[in-house]
Design brief:
GO terms for molecular function: DNA-binding transcription factor activity; transcription cis-regulatory region binding. Pfam families: TetR_N (PF00440). By secondary structure, the chain is an all-alpha fold. The protein has one domain: Tetracycline Repressor, domain 2, CATH 1.10.357. Helix 1 crosses helix 6. The N terminus is likely disordered.
Length: 203
């Protein structure tokens, strides 16, 4: 069954609006906007916005979910391009930092203050912890990482990622989000590295 010509432009317009809303919210936050504000900024009708969501609250949830979905897809594409598990950890954290870079403090604060968007945000942090836990388990099985409790380390990393995303790490340390992710990557990989084999007895 083919999509009618009239439906294709409508779908494309909704996708374009979602991207525009994502970029606007990332730059300025979203709590202070009314639907009329968004109509004026995006040069669209209120009925067009209602094709995305039935209320401003639902619109915020959809846009935040869209942001995390796009960010996750970009991160995973970069991870898929590498094979070494140590490189996977580094690439994952670097890509996460890059995905977070456009997010203003206003966006982070609004997302955390709203119960519905915070649930999406926390689910993303948990998913990141799960991915790191998986990488650690893989590295331990390969002998690349030393024996550690992957679940425990994954939870620690998840909390660190959440703290970076909320801006707490930056406020307390003065680090940018990207620098904080770089420090986390260096700390994690250094702490997980397996001890080198001692070959002195073989000499």
């Amino acid at each position: 069954m083919t999509t009618s010509p009239s439906r294709r432009p409508a779908n494309a317009r909704r996708a374009e609006l979602l991207d525009q809303l994502r970029d606007l919210f990332l730059a300025e936050g979203f709590a202070h906007f009314t639907l009329d504000d968004l109509v004026a900024r995006l040069h669209c009708s209120k009925s067009t916005l209602y094709t995305l969501a039935g209320s401003k609250e639902q619109l915020a949830v959809r846009v935040v979910a869209h942001y995390f979905k796009c960010a996750t897809q970009r991160v995973e594409r970069q991870v898929e391009a590498v094979q070494d598990v140590r490189e996977k950890v580094r690439v994952y954290l670097d890509a996460a930092a890059e995905a977070l870079r456009p997010a203003s403090r206003e966006f982070i604060a609004d997302m955390a203050a709203n119960l519905s968007t915070r649930a999406t945000y926390e689910a993303n942090a948990h998913a990141a912890a799960d991915r790191i836990r998986g990488f650690i388990g893989e590295g331990v099985r390969q002998g690349v990482f030393r024996e550690v409790h992957a679940g425990f380390v994954g939870e620690l990393v998840g909390h660190a990622i959440a703290g970076i995303q909320r801006g707490e790490i930056g406020e307390r340390t003065g680090l940018s989000d990207a620098a904080a992710f770089a420090e986390l990557s260096q700390f994690l990989l250094g702490g997980l590295a397996a001890a080198p084999q001692n070959n002195e007895e073989e000499k």
